[in-house]
Automatic annotation (TrEMBL):
<feature type="signal peptide">
    <location>
        <begin position="1"/>
        <end position="28"/>
    </location>
</feature>
<keyword id="KW-0325">Glycoprotein</keyword>
<keyword id="KW-0964">Secreted</keyword>
<keyword id="KW-1015">Disulfide bond</keyword>
<dbReference type="InterPro" id="IPR008979">
    <property type="entry name" value="Galactose-bd-like_sf"/>
</dbReference>
<dbReference type="InterPro" id="IPR000034">
    <property type="entry name" value="Laminin_IV"/>
</dbReference>
<feature type="disulfide bond">
    <location>
        <begin position="437"/>
        <end position="446"/>
    </location>
</feature>
<feature type="disulfide bond">
    <location>
        <begin position="481"/>
        <end position="490"/>
    </location>
</feature>
<keyword id="KW-0424">Laminin EGF-like domain</keyword>
<dbReference type="GO" id="GO:0005604">
    <property type="term" value="C:basement membrane"/>
</dbReference>
<feature type="domain" description="Laminin N-terminal">
    <location>
        <begin position="32"/>
        <end position="283"/>
    </location>
</feature>
<dbReference type="Pfam" id="PF00053">
    <property type="entry name" value="EGF_laminin"/>
</dbReference>
<dbReference type="Pfam" id="PF00055">
    <property type="entry name" value="Laminin_N"/>
</dbReference>
<dbReference type="InterPro" id="IPR008211">
    <property type="entry name" value="Laminin_N"/>
</dbReference>
<dbReference type="Pfam" id="PF24973">
    <property type="entry name" value="EGF_LMN_ATRN"/>
</dbReference>
<feature type="domain" description="Laminin IV type A">
    <location>
        <begin position="531"/>
        <end position="692"/>
    </location>
</feature>
<dbReference type="InterPro" id="IPR050440">
    <property type="entry name" value="Laminin/Netrin_ECM"/>
</dbReference>
Amino acid sequence: MPGAALALRLPLPLLLLLLGGGAGAAGAQQPPQRGLFPAVLNLASNALITTNATCGEKGPEMYCKLVEHVPGQPVRNPQCRICNQNSSNPYQRHPITNAIDGKNTWWQSPSIKNGIEYHYVTITLDLQQVFQIAYVIVKAANSPRPGNWILERSLDGVDYRPWQYHAVTDTECLALYNIYPRTGPPSYAKDDEVICTSFYSKIHPLENGEIHISLINGRPSADDPSPELLEFTSARYIRLRFQRIRTLNADLMMFAHKDPREIDPIVTRRYYYSVKDISVGGMCICYGHARACPLDPVTNKSRCECEHNTCGDSCDQCCPGFHQKPWRAGTFLTKTECEACNCHGKAEECYYDENVARRNLSLNIHGKYIGGGVCINCTQNTAGINCETCIDGFFRPKGVSPSYPRPCQPCHCDPVGSLNEVCVKDEKRLAPGSCHCKPGFRGVSCDRCARGYTGYPDCKPCNCSGAGSTNEDPCFGPCNCKENVEGGDCGRCKAGFFNLQEDNHKGCDECFCSGVSDRCQSSYWTYGQIQDMRGWYLTDISGRIRVAPQQDDVDPPQQISVSSLEAHRALAQGYYWSAPAPYLGNKLAAAGGQLTFTISYDFEAEGEDAESVLQVTVILEGNDLRISTAQDEVYLQPYEEHIHVLSLKEELFTTHGTNFPVSRREFMTVLASLKRVLIQITYGPGVEAIFR
């Protein structure tokens, strides 16, 4: 009834099951982390219950108890009684609400004296919301239990599906319901199996008989319900569809040949349905994320008290800001939680993106690239998956953490010399805050003329080329051209040379046409970048030993790592990072380009934070030539990243193992058929760390 308290009516074996074990598992060690589930309550006591027929609803009606008319029964004061729904005497009223009020009263149907149609009576319970149903118990009152009937479930009150069939005999299971009977106490082979049983349709006891229907116990996944079992046990509406009253065998023969209205009323008045209690054991559907589900007195509905950072009436979604991982249901054996997105304090909401998760692009709150949380509406002029960078027109200075209250500062780009108002946003690329200058301008803010230009803010070209001349000021004096440059203004490469660049001390590169020609010209094609981290491995100088690095949870997608202990164990004489196939082959187009890589390390043991001196060497092999750069010393603190940029120019290389310089021809010969690219990073002796 509305407002009635939800009473706990839970058989002990089922209680043990729903608390995480099976019957007899009380002494077993339980998993430390498992889902949360509300208590199993009697949901019927708060349901709306209806029926299509009640004794005495059309006026006073006489009925007789079968138990008082069976020979040999010890009955005192046998007599017939009156039921009348409109009577002032409460003992004559038997409304359907009596079946769920918890009192010693009962509901009763009209007897078949009124017609054979009263074999067909339906009781419907509306639980007022969807619950997970564990069991249904039906207790008869002053008549035997129903003979043929169906227990049904529905989510919407329109489409009903069977839970269990009941028949007077096993034969009728096949004849009426086309289901092979399950003999003996009910048992189940599948989580969603619908059986037919005659176990609860016996004539005895003649009154106060009980029917116990378990929807979870005895099914294959009872200890940790499967999606099929969870769907099978979900219901808002429960319907008891009675189809045949259980009668004595002698009377059954009589009913088979005559209309009940033609039979002596003393016989037909004793056949009716009666129910003194319906218990529906179930719990709120909170998907393993709530231990309580109190009744809201305003809405008269139960609502999950969600935990694990979940929200919604059924805890069926992650709360705002907790979408680093997708929502998942908890189980009796496994706990799951929604994890907060790492927005560095700059956003309150986020969403989960499977593609971001697959590419390991989202940094979680533990500093690891696990999950797919994408922050929404980043504040303080921040942007990015984790609000880690800045919006256009702002930059985060070097050394400023994304977690700072106001990490992004306005760009200061000169409107005359800058391409736009967007500067380098963070320390991942070049110098943060540097503006993108128009040709002829330079400086962090592009507020000065570049070398070879004069007259800010116009910055017109000088008489001498800034890229091709050696003049300290290209705007004064006669033009002095670099070695491979010619022209009155030192503005073009000599024959046999190309690619005029200011940072080339000779001005232009020598053509390399494999001996076919000595003439070439600069190409205006655009070139791409190779950033593939798949297939890198560690090796020795001979290349015979290979050690695969790893990509830890803490590693971003473009980072690999190796333990120093593992590396030294396999490569005691020193090791090299070896590039995979995309970096090899004909790489002539890379001449004059750059090889850029980031190096860092962190100690495997806690408490170590000493600075290390690293020696960095790059080795290129191709066409039976091996060339290498001079060792470059890098001073690096643990967890600090060093971006190493190597210009691919012949003057930076020597023949490996010697001090002999590399000619242009030798350098291009190596690049024409690159077989190996090796990066050697030597750390101080005795350093036990994770190298990245």
